[in-house]
């Protein structure tokens, strides 16, 4: 799924722009964007070994908590702030999202859709926390602490007055358009703050 997500995110990012990737892991996405879109990229990652591998890859990454990292930057210093497959693991998602929209002109958010039919089925059938290919963890060792769906995110955006500039939904390595809350495994949103 990573390659497809890289391509989707790459379609949303204009060449030569400034990008901050929060929770960047080993810097694979930043490296891809640097190579294909010639971005000026920075990353934040909590895990030291991942930071070392990102730096060895030639990506500018510092070790830190992504939730506090957004407070370290001035307003609109980045063209894009990316949070890929990490929103559900943050302690205070709304604070992170608002911070992203403060330091970046646009935010790109990707997350696993907990509204996907396989998650619904696994919960209903087993009567336990779902374990699927998309969510292979047991409830007690899962990094996921917030369980959101496409509709949850869209509802939050509406309440916050954010503009959803683009929505892309993925299932089984393909983009889909029908019934995304039920059929999408992963959602990708390009978000901007409404001008006041």
What does the secondary structure layout of this molecule look like, with pairings?
Elements: H1 2-12, E1 18-22, H2 28-37, E2 40-45, H3 48-56, E3 61-63, H4 66-69, E4 78-84, H5 93-103, E5 104-112, H6 117-126, H7 150-160, E6 162-171, E7 174-176, H8 180-183, E8 186-193
What keywords describe this structure?
196 residues; alpha/beta; Rossmann fold; eight-stranded mixed β-sheet; 8 helices; 8 strands; 36% helix; globular
Overall residue-averaged pLDDT value: 90
Strand order of the largest sheet: 3-2-1-4-5-8-6-7
- The CATH topology turns out to be Rossmann fold
Classified in CATH, the superfamily is: Vaccinia Virus protein VP39
Radius of gyration from the CA trace?
Answer: 16 Å
**From the coordinates shown, what is the CATH architecture?**
3-Layer(aba) Sandwich
Total strand segments = 8
* Terminal residue distance: 37 Å
- Mass-distribution shape: globular
Beta-strand percent range: 25-35%
Helix content percent band = 25-40%
- Counting DSSP H or I runs of 4 or more residues, the number of helices is 8
What is the H/E string? HEHEHEHEHEHHEEHE
Low-confidence stretches: none
CATH class: Alpha Beta
Structural classification: alpha/beta
What is the total number of structural domains? 1
Q: Overview of this structure, please?
A:
The termini are far apart. This protein has one domain: Vaccinia Virus protein VP39 (Rossmann fold, 3-Layer(aba) Sandwich). It is built from eight helices and eight strands; from the N terminus they run H-E-H-E-H-E-H-E-H-E-H-H-E-E-H-E. The radius of gyration is 16 Å and the shape is globular. An eight-stranded mixed beta sheet has the order 3-2-1-4-5-8-6-7, sandwiched between helices. With 196 residues, it is of the alpha/beta class. A hairpin with a 2-residue loop joins strand 6 and strand 7.
């Amino acid at each position: 799924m990573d390659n497809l997500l890289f391509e989707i995110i790459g379609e949303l990012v204009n060449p030569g722009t400034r990008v901050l990737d929060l929770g960047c892991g080993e810097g694979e996405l930043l490296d891809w964007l640097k190579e294909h879109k010639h971005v000026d990229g920075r990353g934040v990652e909590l895990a030291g070994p991942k930071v070392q591998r990102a730096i060895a890859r030639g990506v500018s990454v510092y070790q830190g908590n992504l939730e506090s990292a957004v407070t370290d930057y001035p307003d609109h210093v980045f063209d894009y702030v990316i949070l890929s497959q990490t929103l559900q693991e943050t302690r205070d998602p709304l604070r992170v999202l608002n911070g992203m929209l403060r330091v970046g002109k646009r935010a790109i958010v990707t997350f696993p859709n907990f509204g996907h039919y396989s998650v619904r089925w696994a919960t209903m059938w087993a009567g336990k926390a779902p374990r699927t290919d998309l969510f292979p963890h047991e409830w007690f060792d899962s990094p996921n602490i917030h369980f959101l769906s496409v509709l949850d995110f869209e509802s939050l955006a509406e309440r916050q007055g954010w503009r959803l500039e683009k929505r892309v939904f993925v299932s089984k390595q393909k983009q889909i358009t029908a019934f995304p809350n039920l059929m999408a495994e992963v959602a990708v949103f390009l978000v901007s703050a409404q001008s006041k």
